Predict the structure.
Amino acid sequence: MTCIRLKYQTIEFGNTDIHLCGLRNKQEFHDPDGIAAKMGISSASWPIFGILWPSSIVLAKFIQDFDTDKKRILEVGCGLGLTSLMLNKQGDDITATDHHPEVNRFLKRNTTLNNDPEIPFERVDWTDKTDTLGLFDLIIGSDLLYEDEHIELLAKFIESHALQTCQIVIVDPGRGRKAKLVKRLSLSGFSNHTQSAENSPELPDGYKGYVLIFTRVLASK
């Protein structure tokens, strides 16, 4: 990682600080062996994983007060993994995933930076049918719906890793696709509650994201 410029920052969660090492800006790029290019990740989209986006802050702040006790939790498209790092700090059972080949390296660096145990990670594509993740009680993610095609891909990935009784929390920055995701997941028995993101000092002025909370409960016999 010596060929790219890095940025260090700290996000506060009450009396707990989470320290993050990420990319300095969206102009950073380093793919000397063409690994990302072979995966279809362009030079323009390569840095996206390494920036702390507002929606990831919203997700972490929301999940901080969510009932995570004794739940197996999956973060989808974790990027720098702020929420995973926060959950890991408080001893929750969190597994992180992302498609980008550099994510796990940064995740390991950041767990070390926070003096915490390593977070289980698996690099997966939403179309991958061979991952070893298993099933989860709670699935979370932020800023995942960049294209219309992502709605079906994400929904199928969630369906393949959600226990029959499961909750899903997705933070969307308002890209215009949240209603489509709600409709799609309703076909799998998930009810939905949507609320506006709460303001936070770390968020930029004018941020108008949404927290989508999905719930499915195993029907009693």
Q: What stands out?
A: The chain has a mean pLDDT of 94. The longest helix spans residues 149-161.
